[in-house]
Write a structure and sequence with these properties.
CATH topology: Rossmann fold
Number of helices: 9
Number of domains: 1
Helix content: 25-40%
Distance between the termini: 10 Å
């Protein structure tokens, strides 16, 4: 893949938690989702994780995590009251956990966050810079919410972002395609999964 250098690249996996992916997850229940299109990202993300680990490249996870009383959640708890009532991503609960298929390894970096962006109020920027990372391959959910927010913040911090198309999704097609268009417009490259898998091997 043109311009891709695995030596300064890390993988970022965003919000692959029970909340968004399990039928009993808080977001799934709130939205009444019957066919969760975000489940289709699990296998591609598994491929990315395995490829990055095999290449000895860093794997980062973003994990939404708030207190049970939501006092650290800002407007999330005041504007999205139903999420609070459902215990959305309360730290150390089942809802907040990363799904079994994509569990972090001991060598991975898990960044807990309290807002849509993985950079807001976290150590992610300094952690990436300490590892010499200048490019992020970003995957996860939802395309138009936490993925887009994090990619934009990465762009503002001069991290180049690559989004494998098959490895991100939203609850509905319209939101997903809107998110993809926003990502393409100025703040990331959206490419086929195969291009990234080939690039990380070289």
């Amino acid at each position: 893949m043109e311009g891709f250098d695995a030596r300064n690249t890390a993988l970022l996996v965003i919000d692959m938690q029970h909340a968004s992916l399990d039928p009993q997850g808080s977001l799934v229940k709130l939205l009444g989702v019957k066919e969760n299109r975000m489940l289709r990202t699990i296998a591609p993300i598994r491929q990315l994780i395995d490829a990055f680990r095999a290449a000895g490249r860093p794997v980062f996870y973003n994990q939404m995590s708030v207190r049970a009383d939501y006092t650290d959640a800002g407007l999330l708890g005041r504007v999205f009251v139903p999420l609070k009532d459902l215990g959305h991503c309360v730290e150390d609960t089942w809802d907040f956990e990363i799904i079994d298929e994509l569990k972090p390894a001991a060598t991975d970096h898990v960044i807990r966050k309290k807002r849509w962006s993985g950079f807001y109020g976290t150590t992610m920027e300094s952690d990436l810079r300490n590892l010499g990372i200048t490019t992020l391959v970003v995957c996860g959910v939802a395309t138009d919410v936490c993925v887009e927010a994090t990619v934009r913040d990465a762009f503002y911090r001069d991290f180049a972002c690559i989004v494998p198309r098959e490895a991100t999704a939203s609850f509905d097609e319209t939101s997903e395609e809107t998110g993809i268009r926003q990502l393409v417009f100025g703040c990331s490259r959206v490419v086929p999964l195969a291009d990234v898998l080939e690039g990380i091997k070289s």
